[in-house]
DNA sequence: CCTCATTATCGTCATTTGTCTACGTTTTTT
DNA sequence: AAAAAACGTAGACAAATGACGATAATGAGG
């Protein structure tokens, strides 16, 4: 829980009191996952988000030709989930699978909504997180429509250097929307 | 203002009272723009969002090779702005230019924050809008990393058929991350 | 109605990226 | 330790897309 506390403090305008944080922490459930275990499978409705305390995961989907496409990569201090399924209660199109053994903190929809209502500092955090996510999405879109494979990789490596150590190249390639072969070629220069 | 009222009602759980809407409307300023006029230019800090009552716009940026890339297309009932600059007070990297004469309703950052604090129904609307935007971004990313030019166009045409009538092909091509030539070719089949 | 800018298309050629198969290495599992 | 799976690289070829110049069609503005 320490790591959640430190993480939240980086988002809000004033440090979170012990009392507030106790309340927040009480709405999360710790869980452990082994390597290659699924947090979510296609077709399920996901009613929680997971904060990653330790470990790494990826979110991907399988297209109509049977190919996997990595949508997100997650490590410590990231949130794993599917907002569409979470918000609209629809079956997810995604898989979320661990790439390493993981320790996570899970919060259900009910608890999240309750915290947002009853704990202003948590609500502030959620707003900031949304903002950050929205800005990051915009940048990823801009990069994907205007840059070559090489440029996208360089952007990625500059923005998320830790990820290069944590995920095999073919997953990063998939995340960038290119094949592992192309990435391998492009890196040789 | 009628159109803003109707639009907001589509997002919130209970219809917005006359009184609430009067308060909301009081925080917006109507404006008109001619064709090819700029709402935002690169380097400016934007401290407002614009709700489009009538007309069409595009947001784009110019890369280091001098090429334009369309990031967003907007028509009636869309919001034009740059969330990064708006939230972080940083100079924008984007241009927002009208493609048709426009009527818009402008809300400043201060007014938006005030409304969120003082008008619960407006706050609810903002949360829903964020959600919708987040889901749409995710889908656009998924499409851009996993689909061919043709598939991306088909997705786009299916999701936003009105846009095909409102924007010239080369802008749609740019939005999809392909050249106008490729789109023209791809459509011939 | 005329003019000029905008837009769409076409052909050719270059470049990028994908596909497939193979191979060697490393890592994981048994 | 042995076997199996996962991973990165390589080469040859195919397919998709970009770049460029030319031209025709369209539409807006005077």
From TrEMBL, chains A, B:
Q: Which Gene3D superfamilies match?
A: Jelly Rolls
Q: SUPFAM superfamilies from the entry?
A: cAMP-binding domain-like (SSF51206)
InterPro entries registered for this protein in UniProt: cNMP-bd_dom, cNMP-bd_dom_sf, RmlC-like_jellyroll
Pfam families reported in the protein's UniProt record: cNMP_binding
Domain (Cyclic nucleotide-binding): residue spans on this chain? 32-118
Question: Source organism's superkingdom?
Answer: Bacteria
Q: What is this protein called?
A: Putative transcriptional regulator, Crp/Fnr family
Can you name the source organism? Answer: Flavobacterium beibuense
